[in-house]
Amino acid sequence: MPIESIASLGTSITAEEYADLTRTTPSDFASLPPVRHWQGQALICFVPSLPSFASAGWSQGVLSVTEHALLFLSESSTGVRLTYPVISLHAISPKCTIPLPDSAQESERPCIYCQIDESEGRDEEEEDSEQRELYILPQDASQTEAIFAALSQCASLHPAPSEQQTPSLPFHLDNDAHLNGDRPEWSGPIQDDAELTQAGRTQMNRLEALVDWSSLNGDAHHVERDNPDAVEDAPER
User: Fold this and answer.
1) Is the overall model pTM greater than 0.90, yes or no?
2) Where is this region: Disordered (predicted)?
3) Helix (H, G, I), strand (E, B) or coil at 74
4) pLDDT tier for residue 159 given thresholds of 50, 70 and 90
């Protein structure tokens, strides 16, 4: 199941705790809890909404980024677990386009934007359904970059099958493009728009519109294609 319902976050440990536990060789490494790369209060919103949540829109709770999965547990103890192959893309968007709770206004704060691949186990008719998206808004806005970095690091531990033969293709800016707000480029073997499929060009154009490249500082990867085969055309908004 692409998105799993949970009632607790389960056990996870910090990198320091993992180092302590492995100072002597454990009898079974598989029995060790997953390493937690980030955890804290956040709002999340699925579009379209998930039936597992009581209402559509934003949910407040605890977000946990572990080496095995992205987890969220709401204040009502309703939660979700997403393994990294399910997260086909994650990015930083400098402006959240989903109105916040008790407000009709968009947030001026940056957020994490993800596309979710729910194709596993679907029939052909279901595969034509709307692409599900996930928006993550940390309570502390300064933690947006930290969540993105944690997602990037953990996703790299779970490459898609095709990526085991072909290098991943992250969307990135070099220093000059980054500072000037120029059009981003695909790194890796695909550089020419002519080599992209129509779906790929459509998706790339949407990403360019979604992320305000001129507002980003530093030489960082702000959009990651975690599973290139799973990226679909996102709905126009």
Assistant:
1) no
2) 217-237
3) strand
4) confident
More confident residue, 156 or 103: 156
| Max Cα distance, the chain (Å) | 55
Asked whether residue 230 is domain-assigned, the answer is no
Domain presence at residue 174: no
Give CA–CA dist 18/34, Å, rounded: 9
The pLDDT value recorded for residue 53 is 72
Residues 160-167 have a mean pLDDT of 53
| Segments forming the whole domain that contains residue 101 | 3-159
Q: Which residue in this structure is represented by tokens 């059009």? A: 183
Q: Number of folded domains in the chain? A: 1
In a domain, 203, yes or no: no
CB burial string 23-35: b at 16+ within 10 A, e below: eeeeeeeeeeebb
CATH classification of the domain holding 119? 2.30.29.30
Helix residue spans in 22-174 (DSSP H): 124-127, 144-155
Distance between CA atoms of residues 145 and 151, nearest Å: 10
Half-sphere exposure of 80 (CA within 13 A, CB side): 23
pLDDT in tens, 14-50: 999 999 988 888 778 888 999 999 999 999 999 999 8
